[in-house]
Amino acid sequence: QFLYFIATQNMFRRSVATFTGEFFSARNCAVDPDLSRVLANNKEWVRQTNEMDPEFFKSIATGQAPKYLYIGCSDSRVDPGKLMGMNIGDLFVHRNVGNLCPNDLNFLSVLEFAVGVLKVPHIIVCGHYDCGAVRNSAANQMSGLLDNWIRNIRDVHRLHETEVREVRETQGEEAALRLLVEKNVIEQCLNIFKTAVVQSKRLETSKMPAEDREYEFVTPRIHACVFDPADGILKKLDVNFKTEIEKYRHIYDLM
Questions:
Q1: CA 171 to chain centroid
Q2: N or C: more exposed end of the chain, with fewer CB within 10 A?
């Protein structure tokens, strides 16, 4: 039995070696034409950047100190750096389908690092009109694994069902979806206010003497924004978070 085991192991090793040799052959490792364009574009960008600022890459190699945590949708039409005119190093970015701020380890890890380590003074939650995730959530159709994620937006719809229904009846489906995009952004901002790391940091900065504060306001400050791909405009939603927080403080306050 021992000799049989050794022979089997040797056959397995030869099979693996054959497979990996074929898989990583020069033919299979050839650069895809689309990737070739990406790599060429990168080299051209590096060349142009060095021409404009020879010290640029040395400066960003020393670390990061962004002022903004940007939480947005994964939609390919939404480029946070471009739409806000930001440079590399200005934004700490987290993106997912539907710009959600749920209780998952991925988002919470980003939030903890941004607030606790990088100490960003601003958090931007940015949705966008014509959002596929919002549209899907209102369609009552199965989408496989995505349904578990989209349910977060359906919960937002449930909270604001009366208002969304009224807009749908008076202004049409697209207007109702635009409203749901905005309500989703606001609810995700409120989710951030509920977290321990944000409550702790805001309490800490609120107790600092004015002369010791780096900023004149309690940090992090949270902003609800929506981008419109149809005209490129980014707008800040008109919402009073102080009122919303006070309304439910007795439920969500951890400090």
A1: 30
A2: N
